[in-house]
C-alpha cells in the first residue's frame, strides 16, 4: 500500500474520461523536457526524472489519462507541479485532495523507514 499522486485534468483523477491527458501529450512533454528520459523496461510511458531526488530512480508513468507516481519525495512533487501546469492539469492524491503549491506535499523517503 502506498500514497499515489496523480497529474490529472479531472475533478477526481479516476473519473477523467472527459478530460484525459493523452499518451501523446505525455510523450511529447517527456521528449521536450531534458530532465526526463523514457525507461521502456518499465513500460512504454514510464519516465525517469533526472532531477535531484532522494530516490535513485524517481519516476512518473502515464496510465489511462493520468500521470502518476508512488510516494514522491518533495523534489519530485515540486516537479509534478511544473508538469501539471504545462499540461493544464493539477496534482491530486488517491482521495481527491488537490496539492497546488510548493509546500503542500512534503515527504522524505527516510521518514517511511
Give a quick set of tags describing it.
seven-stranded antiparallel sheet, alpha+beta, globular, 3 helices, 113 residues
Structural class: alpha+beta
The count of domains is 1
Number of H/I helices: 3
Strand order of the largest sheet: 2-3-4-5-1-6-7
Rg of Cα set: 13 Å
What share of the residues does DSSP label as strand, in percent?
15-25%
Mean pLDDT: 95
Are there runs of 5+ residues with pLDDT below 50, and where?
none
Helix and strand sequence: EHEEEEHEEH
Can you summarize the main beta sheet?
A: 7 strands, antiparallel
Structure description:
The chain has 113 residues and is an alpha+beta fold. It has one domain. It contains three helices and seven strands. It has a seven-stranded antiparallel beta sheet, with helices on one face. A hairpin with a 2-residue loop joins strand 4 and strand 5. The mean pLDDT is 95.
List the helices and strands and how they pair.
Blueprint: E1 4-8, H1 23-32, E2 36-38, E3 46-49, E4 59-63, E5 66-70, H2 74-86, E6 90-93, E7 98-99, H3 109-112
Antiparallel strand pairs: 1-5, 1-6, 2-3, 3-4, 4-5, 6-7
